[in-house]
Amino acid sequence: MEEIKWGIIGCGDVTEVKSGPAFNKVPHSKLVAVMRRDAVKAADYAKRHGVPKWYDDATALINDPEVNAIYIATPPLQHEAYTLEALAAGKPVYVEKPMTLNAASAQRMIDASSKYNTKLVVAHYRRAQPMFLAVKKLLAENAIGELRLVDLKMLQPINPKLVAQTGDNWRMDPAVSGGGLFHDLAPHQLDLMAYYFGNIQKSTGIATKQQKNTAVDDLVVGQILFESGVVFNGNWCFSVSPSDQSDSCVIYGSKGKISFPMFGHKIDVTVEAISEEIHFEPLEHVQQPMIEQVVKYFLGQAENPCSGKEALITMEIMDAFTADVVG
Hints:
Elements: E1 4-9, H1 13-16, E2 29-35, H2 39-49, E3 53-55, H3 58-62, E4 69-72, H4 79-88, E5 93-95, H5 103-115, E6 120-122, H6 130-140, E7 147-155, H7 174-177, H8 180-197, E8 200-208, E9 219-226, E10 231-237, E11 246-253, E12 256-260, E13 266-271, E14 274-279, H9 288-298, H10 308-321, E15 325-326
Helix pairs in contact: 4-5, 5-10, 8-10
Keywords: Oxidoreductase
Pfam families: GFO_IDH_MocA, GFO_IDH_MocA_C3
GO molecular function: nucleotide binding; oxidoreductase activity
Protein backbone atom coordinates (compact mmCIF):
# COMPACT_ATOMS: atom_id res chain seq x y z
CA MET A 1 0.00 0.00 0.00
CA GLU A 2 1.17 3.52 -0.82
CA GLU A 3 -1.79 5.22 0.87
CA ILE A 4 -4.03 4.11 3.70
CA LYS A 5 -7.66 4.47 2.65
CA TRP A 6 -9.75 4.22 5.79
CA GLY A 7 -13.23 2.98 6.45
CA ILE A 8 -14.75 3.80 9.84
CA ILE A 9 -17.18 1.40 11.47
CA GLY A 10 -19.18 3.34 14.06
CA CYS A 11 -18.97 7.04 13.18
CA GLY A 12 -20.37 8.28 16.49
CA ASP A 13 -19.32 10.96 18.97
CA VAL A 14 -15.73 9.79 19.46
CA THR A 15 -15.03 10.26 15.74
CA GLU A 16 -16.42 13.79 15.43
CA VAL A 17 -13.30 15.58 16.70
CA LYS A 18 -11.03 13.19 18.59
CA SER A 19 -10.18 10.93 15.67
CA GLY A 20 -12.25 11.24 12.48
CA PRO A 21 -10.85 14.46 10.97
CA ALA A 22 -7.28 13.35 11.70
CA PHE A 23 -7.42 10.57 9.09
CA ASN A 24 -7.37 13.24 6.37
CA LYS A 25 -4.65 15.30 8.04
CA VAL A 26 -2.03 12.57 8.34
CA PRO A 27 0.35 12.06 5.36
CA HIS A 28 -0.49 9.09 3.12
CA SER A 29 -3.89 8.70 4.79
CA LYS A 30 -7.43 9.32 3.54
CA LEU A 31 -10.90 8.68 4.95
CA VAL A 32 -12.99 7.25 2.13
CA ALA A 33 -15.98 5.57 3.82
CA VAL A 34 -17.97 5.53 7.06
CA MET A 35 -20.58 3.19 8.46
CA ARG A 36 -23.31 3.52 11.06
CA ARG A 37 -26.37 1.31 11.48
CA ASP A 38 -28.54 4.41 11.36
CA ALA A 39 -28.38 5.31 7.66
CA VAL A 40 -29.56 8.88 8.20
CA LYS A 41 -26.79 9.54 10.74
CA ALA A 42 -24.20 7.83 8.53
CA ALA A 43 -25.18 9.99 5.55
CA ASP A 44 -25.15 13.12 7.70
CA TYR A 45 -21.67 12.35 9.04
CA ALA A 46 -20.33 11.72 5.54
CA LYS A 47 -21.81 14.98 4.26
CA ARG A 48 -20.50 17.10 7.14
CA HIS A 49 -17.00 15.61 7.01
CA GLY A 50 -16.64 15.37 3.24
CA VAL A 51 -16.42 11.57 3.18
CA PRO A 52 -17.17 10.13 -0.30
CA LYS A 53 -19.05 6.99 0.81
CA TRP A 54 -21.31 5.90 3.64
CA TYR A 55 -22.87 2.57 4.61
CA ASP A 56 -25.39 1.23 7.11
CA ASP A 57 -23.88 -2.25 6.91
CA ALA A 58 -20.39 -3.06 8.28
CA THR A 59 -19.83 -6.02 5.95
CA ALA A 60 -20.42 -3.82 2.92
CA LEU A 61 -17.83 -1.31 4.14
CA ILE A 62 -15.29 -4.01 4.96
CA ASN A 63 -15.69 -5.49 1.47
CA ASP A 64 -15.44 -2.13 -0.32
CA PRO A 65 -12.42 -2.67 -2.61
CA GLU A 66 -11.27 0.94 -2.15
CA VAL A 67 -11.08 0.59 1.63
CA ASN A 68 -7.76 -0.98 2.67
CA ALA A 69 -7.82 -0.34 6.45
CA ILE A 70 -10.55 -0.35 9.08
CA TYR A 71 -11.02 1.85 12.15
CA ILE A 72 -13.53 0.35 14.60
CA ALA A 73 -15.15 2.96 16.86
CA THR A 74 -18.29 1.17 18.00
CA PRO A 75 -19.07 0.35 21.64
CA PRO A 76 -16.84 -2.50 22.92
CA LEU A 77 -19.49 -5.19 22.43
CA GLN A 78 -18.96 -5.10 18.65
CA HIS A 79 -15.16 -4.80 18.66
CA GLU A 80 -14.36 -8.49 18.46
CA ALA A 81 -16.84 -9.43 15.74
CA TYR A 82 -15.94 -6.52 13.46
CA THR A 83 -12.21 -7.00 14.05
CA LEU A 84 -12.39 -10.69 13.16
CA GLU A 85 -14.41 -9.95 10.02
CA ALA A 86 -12.02 -7.23 8.86
CA LEU A 87 -8.90 -9.30 9.57
CA ALA A 88 -10.40 -12.25 7.69
CA ALA A 89 -10.89 -9.92 4.72
CA GLY A 90 -7.21 -8.98 4.85
CA LYS A 91 -7.87 -5.44 6.10
CA PRO A 92 -5.59 -4.15 8.90
CA VAL A 93 -7.51 -2.90 11.93
CA TYR A 94 -7.21 0.05 14.29
CA VAL A 95 -9.68 -0.64 17.10
CA GLU A 96 -10.84 1.70 19.85
CA LYS A 97 -10.12 1.18 23.51
CA PRO A 98 -11.05 -0.71 25.53
CA MET A 99 -9.90 -3.36 23.09
CA THR A 100 -13.01 -5.41 23.81
CA LEU A 101 -15.14 -6.69 26.73
CA ASN A 102 -12.56 -8.88 28.47
CA ALA A 103 -9.20 -10.59 28.15
CA ALA A 104 -10.58 -13.78 26.59
CA SER A 105 -12.15 -11.77 23.77
CA ALA A 106 -8.92 -9.81 23.32
CA GLN A 107 -6.94 -13.04 22.95
CA ARG A 108 -9.28 -14.19 20.17
CA MET A 109 -8.62 -10.94 18.32
CA ILE A 110 -4.87 -11.42 18.69
CA ASP A 111 -5.16 -15.01 17.45
CA ALA A 112 -7.11 -13.85 14.40
CA SER A 113 -4.43 -11.27 13.58
CA SER A 114 -1.85 -14.07 13.60
CA LYS A 115 -4.08 -16.49 11.70
CA TYR A 116 -4.74 -14.06 8.86
CA ASN A 117 -1.30 -12.42 9.06
CA THR A 118 -3.01 -9.03 9.17
CA LYS A 119 -2.03 -6.08 11.34
CA LEU A 120 -3.91 -5.05 14.49
CA VAL A 121 -3.46 -1.87 16.55
CA VAL A 122 -5.38 -0.74 19.63
CA ALA A 123 -6.17 2.95 20.17
CA HIS A 124 -4.31 3.59 23.40
CA TYR A 125 -3.47 6.92 21.87
CA ARG A 126 -1.96 8.62 24.93
CA ARG A 127 1.20 6.63 24.15
CA ALA A 128 1.82 9.00 21.23
CA GLN A 129 0.87 12.33 22.83
CA PRO A 130 3.71 14.75 23.70
CA MET A 131 2.73 15.15 27.36
CA PHE A 132 2.76 11.45 28.19
CA LEU A 133 5.90 10.88 26.14
CA ALA A 134 7.51 13.62 28.25
CA VAL A 135 6.61 11.69 31.40
CA LYS A 136 8.16 8.55 29.92
CA LYS A 137 11.34 10.50 29.09
CA LEU A 138 11.58 11.88 32.64
CA LEU A 139 11.26 8.36 34.03
CA ALA A 140 13.90 7.02 31.64
CA GLU A 141 16.27 9.81 32.73
CA ASN A 142 15.73 8.94 36.42
CA ALA A 143 14.60 12.52 37.00
CA ILE A 144 13.00 11.57 40.34
CA GLY A 145 15.47 8.85 41.26
CA GLU A 146 14.58 5.21 41.83
CA LEU A 147 10.88 4.63 41.27
CA ARG A 148 8.79 3.66 44.27
CA LEU A 149 5.03 4.17 44.13
CA VAL A 150 2.22 5.37 41.86
CA ASP A 151 -0.96 6.86 43.32
CA LEU A 152 -3.84 7.40 40.89
CA LYS A 153 -7.22 8.96 41.64
CA MET A 154 -10.10 9.26 39.20
CA LEU A 155 -12.98 10.60 41.27
CA GLN A 156 -15.95 11.94 39.34
CA PRO A 157 -19.58 12.88 40.00
CA ILE A 158 -22.47 11.07 38.34
CA ASN A 159 -22.53 11.88 34.59
CA PRO A 160 -19.05 13.47 34.50
CA LYS A 161 -18.30 16.04 31.79
CA LEU A 162 -15.15 14.25 30.62
CA VAL A 163 -17.26 11.36 29.29
CA ALA A 164 -18.96 11.83 25.92
CA GLN A 165 -22.73 11.91 26.35
CA THR A 166 -24.79 9.60 24.15
CA GLY A 167 -28.53 9.22 23.80
CA ASP A 168 -28.58 5.51 24.62
CA ASN A 169 -26.01 5.80 27.47
CA TRP A 170 -24.45 2.48 26.46
CA ARG A 171 -21.55 2.91 28.88
CA MET A 172 -23.89 2.05 31.74
CA ASP A 173 -24.84 -1.32 30.21
CA PRO A 174 -22.15 -3.88 31.14
CA ALA A 175 -23.18 -6.18 28.29
CA VAL A 176 -22.24 -3.41 25.84
CA SER A 177 -19.43 -1.55 27.62
CA GLY A 178 -17.88 -4.28 29.75
CA GLY A 179 -18.55 -2.52 33.03
CA GLY A 180 -19.43 1.17 33.25
CA LEU A 181 -17.25 4.27 33.35
CA PHE A 182 -14.33 2.35 34.83
CA HIS A 183 -14.14 0.28 31.65
CA ASP A 184 -14.39 3.46 29.57
CA LEU A 185 -11.75 5.58 31.34
CA ALA A 186 -9.38 3.19 33.13
CA PRO A 187 -7.90 1.73 29.89
CA HIS A 188 -6.23 5.12 29.24
CA GLN A 189 -4.58 5.05 32.66
CA LEU A 190 -3.73 1.38 33.00
CA ASP A 191 -2.18 1.17 29.55
CA LEU A 192 0.16 4.03 30.44
CA MET A 193 1.18 2.26 33.64
CA ALA A 194 2.23 -0.84 31.70
CA TYR A 195 3.87 1.40 29.07
CA TYR A 196 5.87 3.19 31.76
CA PHE A 197 6.73 0.44 34.21
CA GLY A 198 6.95 -2.79 32.20
CA ASN A 199 6.12 -6.34 33.15
CA ILE A 200 3.55 -7.05 35.85
CA GLN A 201 4.09 -9.54 38.66
CA LYS A 202 0.66 -9.32 40.26
CA SER A 203 -2.59 -7.35 40.07
CA THR A 204 -5.66 -7.47 42.28
CA GLY A 205 -8.61 -5.29 43.21
CA ILE A 206 -12.09 -4.73 44.54
CA ALA A 207 -15.11 -3.51 42.59
CA THR A 208 -18.50 -2.61 44.00
CA LYS A 209 -21.81 -1.01 43.07
CA GLN A 210 -22.50 1.78 45.55
CA GLN A 211 -25.29 3.57 43.70
CA LYS A 212 -28.79 2.14 43.81
CA ASN A 213 -30.36 0.78 40.63
CA THR A 214 -27.06 0.46 38.76
CA ALA A 215 -25.88 -2.51 36.72
CA VAL A 216 -22.21 -1.48 36.65
CA ASP A 217 -19.36 -1.22 39.12
CA ASP A 218 -19.03 2.44 40.10
CA LEU A 219 -16.20 2.11 42.63
CA VAL A 220 -13.01 0.22 41.79
CA VAL A 221 -9.81 -0.01 43.81
CA GLY A 222 -6.82 -1.80 42.32
CA GLN A 223 -3.19 -2.57 43.02
CA ILE A 224 -0.38 -3.68 40.73
CA LEU A 225 3.07 -4.96 41.65
CA PHE A 226 5.48 -4.55 38.75
CA GLU A 227 8.48 -6.83 38.34
CA SER A 228 10.67 -3.75 38.84
CA GLY A 229 9.29 -3.39 42.36
CA VAL A 230 7.13 -0.34 41.59
CA VAL A 231 3.71 -0.51 43.28
CA PHE A 232 0.59 1.06 41.77
CA ASN A 233 -2.51 2.04 43.76
CA GLY A 234 -5.56 3.17 41.80
CA ASN A 235 -8.95 4.49 42.94
CA TRP A 236 -11.90 5.07 40.62
CA CYS A 237 -15.20 6.38 41.99
CA PHE A 238 -18.02 7.76 39.85
CA SER A 239 -20.44 9.07 42.45
CA VAL A 240 -18.55 11.68 44.46
CA SER A 241 -19.61 15.29 45.00
CA PRO A 242 -18.74 17.61 42.10
CA SER A 243 -16.59 19.57 44.56
CA ASP A 244 -14.49 16.47 45.28
CA GLN A 245 -13.73 15.39 41.75
CA SER A 246 -10.12 14.56 41.02
CA ASP A 247 -8.01 13.45 38.06
CA SER A 248 -4.54 12.83 39.40
CA CYS A 249 -1.59 10.52 38.87
CA VAL A 250 1.47 10.92 41.10
CA ILE A 251 4.64 8.92 40.54
CA TYR A 252 6.96 8.92 43.56
CA GLY A 253 10.69 8.30 43.40
CA SER A 254 13.60 8.37 45.81
CA LYS A 255 14.35 12.03 44.95
CA GLY A 256 10.93 13.49 44.15
CA LYS A 257 7.68 13.06 42.27
CA ILE A 258 5.96 13.62 38.93
CA SER A 259 2.29 14.66 39.00
CA PHE A 260 -0.11 14.94 36.07
CA PRO A 261 -3.77 14.51 35.11
CA MET A 262 -4.95 12.03 32.50
CA PHE A 263 -7.28 14.64 31.02
CA GLY A 264 -5.15 17.77 31.26
CA HIS A 265 -2.14 19.57 29.84
CA LYS A 266 0.42 20.04 32.62
CA ILE A 267 3.15 18.04 34.35
CA ASP A 268 4.45 19.02 37.78
CA VAL A 269 7.96 17.77 38.59
CA THR A 270 9.36 18.09 42.12
CA VAL A 271 12.95 17.06 42.80
CA GLU A 272 14.45 17.59 46.26
CA ALA A 273 11.81 20.23 47.09
CA ILE A 274 12.32 22.21 43.86
CA SER A 275 9.23 22.23 41.63
CA GLU A 276 8.76 22.88 37.92
CA GLU A 277 5.62 23.05 35.79
CA ILE A 278 5.72 21.85 32.17
CA HIS A 279 2.77 22.97 30.05
CA PHE A 280 1.51 21.46 26.77
CA GLU A 281 -0.80 22.84 24.12
CA PRO A 282 -4.15 21.02 23.81
CA LEU A 283 -4.35 18.86 20.71
CA GLU A 284 -7.07 19.65 18.19
CA HIS A 285 -7.51 15.94 17.44
CA VAL A 286 -6.24 13.90 20.37
CA GLN A 287 -5.70 10.77 18.30
CA GLN A 288 -3.75 12.41 15.47
CA PRO A 289 -0.25 11.58 16.80
CA MET A 290 -1.29 7.93 17.25
CA ILE A 291 -2.94 7.77 13.83
CA GLU A 292 0.32 9.03 12.31
CA GLN A 293 2.12 6.08 13.90
CA VAL A 294 -0.58 3.62 12.83
CA VAL A 295 -0.36 4.77 9.21
CA LYS A 296 3.43 4.35 9.25
CA TYR A 297 3.01 0.87 10.74
CA PHE A 298 0.43 -0.16 8.16
CA LEU A 299 2.76 1.12 5.42
CA GLY A 300 5.66 -0.91 6.84
CA GLN A 301 7.61 2.17 7.95
CA ALA A 302 7.43 1.78 11.75
CA GLU A 303 6.77 -0.65 14.58
CA ASN A 304 3.31 -1.29 16.00
CA PRO A 305 2.52 1.64 18.36
CA CYS A 306 0.21 -0.52 20.51
CA SER A 307 -0.15 -4.18 19.65
CA GLY A 308 -2.97 -6.49 20.63
CA LYS A 309 -0.62 -8.23 23.06
CA GLU A 310 0.14 -4.93 24.78
CA ALA A 311 -3.56 -4.04 24.98
CA LEU A 312 -4.31 -7.52 26.34
CA ILE A 313 -2.33 -6.57 29.45
CA THR A 314 -4.79 -3.76 30.15
CA MET A 315 -7.74 -6.11 29.70
CA GLU A 316 -6.16 -8.61 32.10
CA ILE A 317 -5.64 -5.90 34.73
CA MET A 318 -9.24 -4.72 34.45
CA ASP A 319 -10.48 -8.31 34.70
CA ALA A 320 -8.36 -8.78 37.83
CA PHE A 321 -9.64 -5.56 39.42
CA THR A 322 -13.28 -6.40 38.78
CA ALA A 323 -13.27 -10.19 39.13
CA ASP A 324 -15.65 -10.11 42.08
CA VAL A 325 -18.08 -7.22 41.76
CA VAL A 326 -19.86 -6.61 45.07
CA GLY A 327 -23.41 -5.27 45.14
